[in-house]
Design brief:
By secondary structure, the protein is α/β, with parallel strands linked by helices. Helices cover 35% and strands 21% of the residues. The chain has one domain (3-156): 2-Layer Sandwich (Nucleotidyltransferase, domain 5), CATH 3.30.420.140. Could be a nuclease involved in processing of the 5'-end of pre-16S rRNA. One of its GO terms (cellular component) is cytosol.
């Protein structure tokens, strides 16, 4: 399915950290994203668990948050997320886009606190905070009209620190 034909687009969104990856699900019909799951990147079965999740939800697009600094500059986390996005696209063959994720984690903390206050979330749900951030990232991509912004080649980015494999 593709967005140009007006067909429904199902997407998974990702908030990539050094250890945890928050995952969200959303689609073009409802124009809504929601938290789904958090996976530990350090687990030996991380990629198999992620690929199983992708087979289960059968997304048309994958969207990874691009963690630029507030000034819009590249940082070490940017390189990690972009490398992850390229690996994700290479492993799945599913078109992968990147979208600005600045301040998404802070917004996720605020949203989670508000849901707790309203009785819609419990303290034990705090482990899903990265998934809440992923839902904010995915919602921003949906709200922006689902732009096609593939992950850049990380080899051409300049950082003071050496690259870290995702």
């Amino acid at each position: 399915m593709n967005e140009a034909s007006g067909a429904s687009v199902c997407a998974l969104g990702f908030d990539v950290g050094e250890r945890w990856v928050g995952i969200a699900i959303g689609n073009s019909i409802s124009q809504q994203a929601r938290p789904l799951k958090v996976l530990n990147r350090e687990q030996q079965n991380f990629w198999s668990d992620l690929e199983r999740l992708i087979r289960e939800w059968r997304p048309d697009r994958l969207v990874v948050g691009d963690p630029l600094t507030l000034a819009g500059e590249i940082q070490a986390a940017t390189r990690i997320a972009r490398r992850f996005a390229r690996q994700l696209q290479g492993r799945t063959g599913i078109p992968t886009a990147m979208t600005d994720e600045r301040a998404s984690s802070r917004e996720a903390v605020r949203v989670f606190a508000e849901q707790r206050r309203q009785g819609q979330a419990r303290r034990r749900d705090a482990e899903l905070q990265d998934a809440y951030a992923a839902s904010i990232i995915l919602q921003r991509w949906l709200d922006a009209g689902m732009p096609d912004s593939p992950p850049p080649d990380v080899a051409h980015e300049h950082l003071d620190s050496p690259p870290t494999d995702a």
